[in-house]
Design a protein that fits this description.
Blueprint lengths: L9 E2 L1 H32 L9 H36 L11 E2 L2 H8 L1 H23 L1
Antiparallel strand pairs: 1-2
Helix pairs in contact: 1-2, 1-3, 1-4, 2-4
Length: 137
């Protein structure tokens, strides 16, 4: 049985900031892994257009592209999550206040921080998929 949904609104600024802060650590780990893979890839892989087949050339090039985009996406997640959580935690002193009253922290992000929520979720998952695909190739 599901717990009842609270009918009263409470302040979820700290909960939402904690959610965003919690994604920074795995994003940093994936970004570091992507940089490490890119370093190993750039020093160990050479493309020989005469002996390599076309699928081999495409695979070798796509590994570099996937690692670079994974790093960029994960760094974007780190920066957006840091700025948004700082904005939420410093909301009292801000001139443009965010209404942090909601029934849940995800509800607050859906209502008041849609763009940041989508950027963080999309960037983290897409960066993780890019890194995994590069490892798979």
């Amino acid at each position: 049985m599901l717990p009842p949904v609270p009918s009263e609104l409470t302040d979820f600024a700290i909960g939402s900031a904690s959610w965003m802060t919690g994604l920074r650590t795995p994003a940093a780990l994936v970004a570091g892994s992507a940089m490490s893979g890119l370093n190993a890839y750039s020093s160990g892989v050479s493309i020989d257009f005469e002996s390599d087949t076309f699928p081999q050339v495409v695979a070798k090039r796509s590994i570099g592209v996937l690692l670079v985009t994974s790093f960029i996406l994960e760094m974007m997640v780190i920066f957006v999550a840091t700025v948004t959580s700082t904005k939420l935690l410093g909301n009292v002193d801000s001139a443009n206040k965010i209404n942090t009253m909601a029934r849940s922290s995800v509800g607050l992000m859906h209502r008041g921080l849609e763009f940041e929520y989508v950027i963080i979720r999309f960037g983290f998952l897409q960066g993780l998929l890019h890194w995994l695909c590069s490892v798979g190739l």
